[in-house]
Design goal:
Elements: H1 6-14, H2 20-23, H3 29-43, E1 44-47, E2 53-54, H4 67-83, H5 92-95, E3 100-101, E4 104-105, E5 110-111, H6 117-125, E6 129-130, E7 145-146
Antiparallel strand pairs: 1-2, 1-6, 3-4, 5-7
Helix pairs in contact: 3-4, 4-6
């Protein structure tokens, strides 16, 4: 299950620049949307009028999924598709203990963003509260962070 279905995402990306990768995803589109939905649920919550925290449930009749949340989900799905790796997993180079290669130095304390900058902005502009670990910090550069 996901906040946005493939038909909705296809229509959204048909009107968005730099989204060509989406049309090549084929049968994997639903996987990307489902993964994006779960990542949003894991790293963001909302408050209702009575200051109660909640997450949107994709199969709940109690709260309709708003268009902005579908858009955030689609943007995160495209980010995952373009990234071509799971941002919740450690980078192979640092996991293997490689500290540098061809002039590039790796830091084992590096942690990648989970949610992309566009997804974060959409969520926050609509009352979402991002949990620690969702991004590399306030700069929202989608390049990760180093913990010291």
């Amino acid at each position: 299950m996901s906040y946005a279905d493939v038909t909705w995402a296809d229509e959204y990306f048909a009107m968005r620049a730099f989204a060509g990768a989406w049309s090549t995803a084929g049968d994997d589109k639903q996987k990307y949307l489902s993964t994006a939905t779960q990542q949003i649920k894991d790293f963001c919550f909302f408050s209702d009028e009575q200051n109660g925290m909640f997450i949107y449930e994709e199969d709940s009749a109690a709260r309709e999924i708003p268009a902005w949340l579908k858009r955030a989900t689609a943007e995160q799905a495209l980010h995952l598709l373009n990234l071509a790796k799971d941002p919740t997993q450690n980078d192979k180079k640092t996991t293997l203990g490689v500290s540098s290669t061809e002039g590039t130095v790796f830091d084992k304390k590096f942690a990648a963003d989970i949610l992309c900058a566009t997804c974060c902005r959409i969520l926050e502009n609509n009352g979402g509260v991002l949990l620690a670990g969702a991004t590399a910090g306030s700069k929202r550069l989608s390049v990760g962070r180093v913990s010291k």
